[in-house]
Amino acid sequence: MRIGKFQAYVVMLALGAACLGACRQTTSPQAEGLPEQVDFNFHIKPILSDRCFSCHGPDAAAREAGLRLDLPEGGLEKVLESGGRAFVPGSPGKSEAFLRMTSPDPELHMPPPTSNLQLTPRDIALVEKWIRQGARYQPHWAFIPPRKSRLPHIRQLHWPQNEIDYFVLARLEQQGWQPAPPASKARWLRRLSFDLRGLPPSPQELDAFLADTSATAYQRVVDSMLASVHFGERLATDWLDVARYADSHGYQDDGYRFVWPWRDWVIQAFNQNMPYDQFLSWQLAGDLLPAASQQSRLATTFLRNHRANSEAGIVDEEYRVEYVADRSQTVSTAMLGLTLECARCHDHKYDPISQKEYYQFFAFFNNVPELGLIANDGNPAPLLPLVPDSMRQYLHNLQQWLQAQEARNDSLAGGPPPEKLLPLRPRHIRRGLKQGLLLHSNFEQPWRKKVANLANP
Hints:
Blueprint (H helix, E strand, L loop, with lengths): L4 H27 L8 H12 L1 H4 L15 H6 L18 H7 L18 H12 L30 H13 L9 H13 L5 H9 L5 H10 L2 H14 L17 H12 L4 H10 L8 H6 L16 H21 L18 H11 L23 H23 L14 H6 L26
Helix pairs in contact: 1-5, 1-6, 2-6, 8-10, 11-12, 15-16
């Protein structure tokens, strides 16, 4: 027997309403362990992504019924053929997507049995609570400014030692777990040392800590480790991984390159507690700052840590483009919290980036004058001469002197006596000549018929 769409919708609502009561009974035990505030990005989107997005997600080619659940335009605003909406804020019983999730009818149930995907009772309870709390969608987490969270409610008020402990304990209580008993001082020190320095404590540090019975013993050992140079090294290891740091080029013969000064800059930045916005801006555009320093220029090595090819048979432009793509993708991952790789070939299916936006971002790094083919050893241009602080003023003075001499020589190009062109006289030059030199001439005297031998005393 065939029934119309209206009749099917009525049947679906009836089944859904009946199921909703049963669903509340089956999910009520799960509700006890649910978070106080259900978060779309953290709790709901993973459920929809795993169970629903294959048919109702970002991929337009695979989308069914024209329904897209990853955006509020689809989940909240789109009017379905039945006249309803997928999610109705505050009303699980009017949310057709939820009714489908809880329907016992295999013809109506979502995800369909043929997909071999299932929602757990906890998943359903989370979706229901999210709808009751307003079904608020959120943009990609990377676009949400950080904000200070209020402390969650906990039962064991005596347990927290600081604000972070409130969040740890709240999650433990959600899972029905109890906190572990306090660790011994020796074990606590070992954990702390590996967390902050990446190294075990020395026997001397352990003995001193065990012998310290004062109320500030823990605080003092934490402060000492934060002041250690190894603290910056420990933090730098994670950033070096994100920045694809290597001491070699990564292709073919894998020649050596000289970039360890940038690694040391990263370590120093962490040890000096450099503000994070400065840490990022220097690495992204430190050479473009109004008062760019040697250190801010050195920081831009972050952009040049990509693999580089020295094989003679490569297509130069192909690898130059690969370097630009590498910079684009690394900056997006490390600094924006996004993945751009997919959008190089098509609109991204999971991060909100179109192919057009990818190449707009790509264009920022496509203006670097460089070649795809590099020398096997050493760094490809452009290069930065690193000058010790003790030599910087001397080289600055020398550079000014050279510029002054060049300007002076240009103004005296009409043919004055050659001895006025240079500050050094022949007798001064002769003092620095090596023994046995037979001839020395600067060949800068075109108006003379004879060549002066400055080596002749």
